[in-house]
Amino acid sequence: MSREITHDANGPKLIGEDELEEQGGSVHLCMCGLSNDYPYCDGSHTATTDEDADTRYKYENDDDENPRHVVAEMVFEED
Ligand code: FES
Fold first, then answer.
1. Chain segment 21-68, per-residue pLDDT in tens
2. 46 CA to middle of ligand 1, Å?
3. How many domains does the chain divide into?
4. pTM, entire model
């Protein structure tokens, strides 16, 4: 499983002590790339739970043509 994600930021985001304190001292950072509240997790990762291990996807939040579509599938050739 993998995803193609388009990012337009070109620098880091500082998460300062004040922001952490507002969040109760810890935050969940989005690692799936689908959050609408990036860099924080908003639960959007649940859409990835049924991804096939050998398939690469693109999602609606990243491409408004389709909710999720297959970009590529791995093909394994047998000898
Ligand atoms: S890890 Fe990306 S939305 Fe939760």
1. 998 999 999 999 999 898 999 999 999 999 999 999 999 866 677 788
2. 8
3. 1
4. 0.79
